[in-house]
Amino acid sequence: MKFWGKHKKQDQKEPLWLEKLPIDTGDWMQVFSACLGKMTAIQTACGEQVVKDQNWHVDFSRGMICFGEQAYPLQLIGSEASSNDSWLWGWENINGLPESLLRLAVGTKAVGERWRLEALTAAGFALDDTFNGHSLSVVACGLADRYCYYRCPHSGGAVFVAFSGVPDSVFAPVDAQKFLSITMQCVQQFDIDHKAFAEGFLTWNNTNYDWDGRTLLAHFPQELKIAFEQAGDGLRICSVDTESFGK
Q1: What would the pLDDT profile of 141-154 be if each residue is shown by its tens digit?
Q2: 95-132: burial string, b at 16+ Cβ within 10 Å, e else
Q3: Predicted confidence (pLDDT) at residue 6 exceeds the cutoff of 60
Q4: Residue 103: partners with Cβ closer than 8 Å, 6 or more residues away
Q5: Where are the domains of the chain?
Q6: Fewer CB near the terminus (10 Å): N or C of the chain?
Q7: In 3D, which of 148, 168, 134, 137 has the Cα closest to residue 44?
Q8: Per-residue pLDDT at 245 exceeds 90
Q9: How many CB atoms lie within 10 A of CB 67?
């Protein structure tokens, strides 16, 4: 499983991809924002290529989630309880699952401890618009490599599982138009750090970029210019140059 190495003071393994970004890893909004573009692209492709509105079934005894006739190895991320609107991380393992199904959750906790990010280290807490199964799964899978996730509702709430073994095309880079579409979708839907989002999305997408003042130049085959403006203590997207798209 590709995830993260130990702290660099302990060895010289490569840091997490997100640790290479100019963000504060102790700030939830910046971490969530940096993972969001990547996971929106992956989740969209997974829905189109894997889930495809098929019936689903989870078998924890086998460690698999099935969509139609296809089965994929899973990891338990955590669960939402509707009785008290709370979240519980999978590493608490209240159901006694095999440790092999908890590696992603345990690894996420380890990163949270290193970054002192309480949302990844507190066993459970109340759900709200910021901290919920989807946002926590975005970060858990966003930190790792080549995972999708799925919300599995049941009578008492929902279980969130990550799964792997899907086609490589699910993780394929997006083009400039798809990048822009996902960016506009996310900045309208979520309260995020626009700069961390853009840099995180481009980094995962293996798209080089530069800054010219407050304008981000994304080097797709069709150059994309994203202008930012000051908004409080941060930057927000104010305009996008799409003139080259039709050429």
Answers
A1: 999 999 999 999 99
A2: eeeeeebbbbbebbbbbbebbebebbbeeeeebeeebb
A3: no
A4: 1, 3, 75
A5: 17-168, 173-246
A6: C
A7: 148
A8: no
A9: 19
Residue among 81, 42, 48, 46 nearest 65 (CA): 46
Q: Is the dihedral of CA 127, 129, 134, 139 positive or negative?
A: negative
Instruction: Compute the C-alpha angle 193/236/143, nearest 5°.
Output: 25
Q: Is the pLDDT of residue 1 over 50?
A: no
C-alpha pair distances (Å), 106 with each of 52, 109, 170, 219: 30, 5, 25, 36
Structure tokens at 172: 């394929």
pLDDT tens digits, one per residue of 111-135: 999 999 999 999 999 999 999 999 9
Query: Are the C-beta atoms of residues 29 and 46 closer than 8 Å to each other?
Result: no
Neighbours of 220 (CB within 10 A): 20
Token pair for 99: 């440790």
How many Å apart are CA 134 and CA 141, to the nearest integer? 10
